[in-house]
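yo

u said u wanted the structure for the complex thing, so here. seqs first:
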Amino acid sequence: SQTIHQWPATLVQPVGSPLSLECTVEGTSNPNLYWYRQAAGRGLQLLFYSVGIGQISSEVPQNLSASRPQDRQFILSSKKLLLSDSGFYLCAWRAKEGRFYNSPLHFGNGTRLTVT
Amino acid sequence: GEDVEQSLFLSVREGDSSVINCTYTDSSSTYLYWYKQEPGAGLQLLTYIFSNMDMKQDQRLTVLLNKKDKHLSLRIADTQTGDSAIYFCAERRGSSGAGSYQLTFGKGTKLSVIP
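structre next:
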């Protein structure tokens, strides 16, 4: 069966420090990978998605970047964190699909980032 | 508009039925989903419905889809305290090509179950 791992679970970082959040998926190959952010009192915001190694699509221009160095590894980074980067970051994966073939998103347990 | 809309809060008594409503925007959406998020955790897929269906039942969960009104609902029968969580509605948008389908989420409905 497939599993998704995200770490760390919680992180407190000062403003201006770098960030690296990691996500790995097991039990599947060539998944689509996603980073979402959930700010307090708001819904989910799609930040990045990737359909393959080295292929990153950014949905929202901002202080963050993403990379996919391996098929089942997705990394969210920042060179200098801002206060507004605080939030709950969720990694997700799903299998490739066609118009009438369903493949739901499967989420990791999230990383709670507090920028102080 | 562009948003998937949900009411933000719902409070029910233990043992009653809960109904969480959602309106979506894309009439060509093929799949609609319900996810559950417990405090401090990620989102867990509860159920989904294909757009050619009006209803789907899975144990205590019933999903109703009204395509004409673009309205989706989730009914939880015999609601328990363990059902307290945030429930997200999501629609699948996009067309063609692997990876180009995106899920658009509502802001979530926080369900509080009163013992």
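Chain A is about 0% helix and 55% strand. The interface with chain B takes residues 6, 32, 42-44, 46, 49-51, 90, 92, 96-97, 99-100, 102, 104-110, 112 of chain A (CB under 8 Å).
cya
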